[in-house]
Amino acid sequence: MKRVYTHGNRAIAEAALVAGLKFYAGYPITPTSDIMEYLAEKLPEYGGVMMQFEDELASINAIVGASWAGAKAMTATSGPGFSLMAEGLGLAVITETPIVIAYVMRAGPSTGVPTKSTQADIYQARFVSHGDYIIPVLAPWSVQEAFDLTIKAFNIAEYLRTPVILLSDATLAHLWESAVFRDRGEVEIIDRKKPKVPPEKYKPYEPEEDGIAPMAVFGEGYKVLVESLTHDERGFYIQDTMVQRRMVQRIVGKIIKNIDRVFEYETHYMDNARHAIVSYGTSARSSLAVVRDLREKGIDIGMVRLKTIWPIDEGSLRKTLSGVEKIFVVENNMGKLVWDIQRIMHDKEVIPVSIIDLDLPSPNEILEVINEWL
Amino acid sequence: MALIEKTKVELGKAHPLDKYLRIERIPTLWCPGCGLGVSLAALLKAIDRRVKEGVLDPKKIVFVTGIGCTARTSFYVGFDAAHTLHGRAVAFATGAKLANPKLELIVLGGDGDIAGIGGNHLIHAARRNMDLLVIMNTNFIYAMTGGQLAPTTPPGLYTTTTPQGSREKPMNVIKLLAAFEVNYVARGSSIYPQLLEQYYYKALGMRGFRFIEVVSTCPEVFGRHIGYRDPVTLYDELKKRVKVKTKPSIEESSLDWDRGIIIGEYIVNDYPGYIELIMGGKK
Predict the structure, then answer these.
(1) Which fold has domain A264-373?
(2) B209: nearest Cα among B90, B102, B96, B74
(3) Contact A22/B91, CB-based, under 8 Å?
(4) What pLDDT is recorded for position B11?
(5) Euclidean distance between CA atoms B78 and A238, whole angstroms
(6) Does A146 touch chain B (CB under 8 A)?
(7) Record: contact B75-A91, CB cut-off 8 A
(8) Which CATH superfamily is domain A2-186 in?
(9) Would A2-186 and A264-373 be classified into the same CATH topology?
């Protein structure tokens, strides 16, 4: 355990080392490159390899390959690079490959403002690849949480055999604050399940009771078949509706079945709150200031901060927000998470507080909107 | 009936190379007259020789492919295998090799997969002298998708996407790779499987980046486009064009359907591979 004063990107890199990262592949892109630079120096000391590839297409495919060779693997990028990773992310989904992608959002569309932030990419993180799936997306709001949720991202990836996205942004990337970084042995580290059967009985996509298939890797004699086509439990391509259904339901089902491991949120001042803000990531920093401001003025308002933005445990969120009258969804974009909150809380008044700001929405601007509705 | 009974053999024990196949997935989807089966048999023979020598451990061999007819190889072979994305096999294999240097990575793909959509990864793997064996099956056409223009399509040829005839020149991947300090570049052909086996055998005993182009037959799609009505005609026509040379120069490497295609070993080097460089001499 050590007390540190550092920034979000460094927290991600340090946490990855603690989580057991052994292979990092990436391509330089603002505002994430210092994750790669730091790991270039440190990862070899931990027995791993950092490789700068020719592009993001190579990076994502290389980490999928490395994961099947037995390494905990990750990449980091921002919007333009993530767009290029769309197909590779789908490969990780269908082959049920544990990988972690640190996605540090910057302002878009296109090249946008490389050094500055928004939260405009939350749906890209959720749905960038084609097909049916759920990819867990974790959104830290502080340097401490960038560290903690990166470890959680690796643990979910390994436990559920799935890609996981750690969704940070340019503001948090280089925001300095103090935090406590734990070492190995002080935090729970999960490794993927290994097969208990001999190679001739092993099926790479056959789930056990918990919905997750044990993962043999290259070089162990299991003759594993990594298959990007729709496949049965053996990994054999089969063009059949029932096989398609079974595969997709397995991929989606294992996340839903284990949603308690994935979904995390915290509440502030929610006891008997009359209204609530729902927010996530750096926007929640301003939102909390607003809540405190309003509380001082005698308004009973609280905040629900999602640490996991996808998938949302809808029952749990409904329960938490059941007693409030108005829900304000504060985010740094044109209004995105609010679509889901409006659906989940359809019997409540859900008001978008969508403020585009290259740093983070200012408390004053948030207050202006909320005051109109109170 | 009696004859059938007599020829009935135990599954997986009909042929000495069956141990390297996923027998339950045979027959392949490859068309009659396709060169891919011939090429794969030559590769498996070469692997078998290296296994018997103790140079290769079958448990450490990994086939990685992208998308296309050639890419289907991954799920016919009885090794660890990955049938990945179009163009990305080299990147996937590089990641696997770096994560576990004990693995022997064999990448296979068509010319569209390796040199078309995957061209950038090929270039950079070559630049790094990455420890991979990359096998590119050149059949002059996009076959699986039904006959579109390929990076190797001869000029003037009608394809489904060049109905007025192709205006593009074919890509000479041998010459492209000569720009880098790679360890092995050869061009063989499914017309000469014994020679091909020799190239595979040699490459499987080497380090660093190794590349073998296999000039092959696609009678069903390419053959029909150039007006050959059956596989034998295409085979004969290709045989007329393919010329074997012991030590061909890079200048002779152009992929010229009209004037002939020279096969042979173009580049043989023994530079340290990328893995050795990052591991400080330990392999």
Answers:
(1) Rossmann fold (3.40.50)
(2) B90
(3) no
(4) 60
(5) 18
(6) no
(7) no
(8) Thiamin diphosphate (ThDP)-binding fold, Pyr/PP domains (3.40.50.970)
(9) yes
* A218 reaches B (C-beta below 8 A): yes
Strand pairing class (B209-215; A265-268):
unpaired
CB contact under 8 A, B60 and A219: yes
Q: Is B95 on the interface with A (CB under 8 A)?
A: yes
Cβ-proximal residues to A314 (8 Å cutoff; 6+ apart), any chain: A344
CA pair distance A31, B227, nearest whole angstrom = 55
Q: How far apart are CA B203 and CA A118, in angstroms?
A: 50
- Provide CB contacts within 8 A for B4, sequence distance 6+: none
Helices (H), chain B: 2-7, 36-53, 89-99, 111, 119-127, 173-177, 193-204, 224-225, 231-241, 274-278
Domains of chain B: 3-278 (3.40.50.970)
Quote the CA–CA distance of A219 and B103 in Å, as a whole number: 6
Query: Is the ipTM beyond the 0.95 threshold?
Result: yes
Q: How far is A321 from chain B (nearest CA, A)?
A: 43
Distance CA B194, CA B200 (A): 10
Using the predicted structure, report yes or no on whether residue A189 has a pLDDT greater than 70: yes
- From chain A, the residues in CB contact with B121 under 8 A are 54, 57-58
What are the tokens at A7?
């920034």
Q: How far is A51 from chain B (nearest CA, A)?
A: 9
DSSP symbol at B33:
T
Whether A233 has its CB under 8 Å from any CB of chain B: the answer is no
Q: What is the reported pTM?
A: 0.97
For chain A, the structural domain boundaries read 2-186, 264-373
Q: Tell me the pLDDT band of A247, cut-offs 50, 70 and 90.
A: very high
Residues contacting residue B208 through CB under 8 Å, at least 6 positions apart: B129, B130, B131, B182, B183, B184, B269, B270, B271, B272, B273, B274
Distance from CA of A34 to the nearest CA of B (A): 21
Q: Report yes or no: A93 and A132 within 8 Å, Cβ to Cβ.
A: no
pLDDT of B280: 72
Contact predicate A66/A95, CB 8 Å? no
Beta strands in chain B (DSSP E): 61-65, 80-83, 104-110, 132-138, 184-189, 209-215, 242-244, 261-268
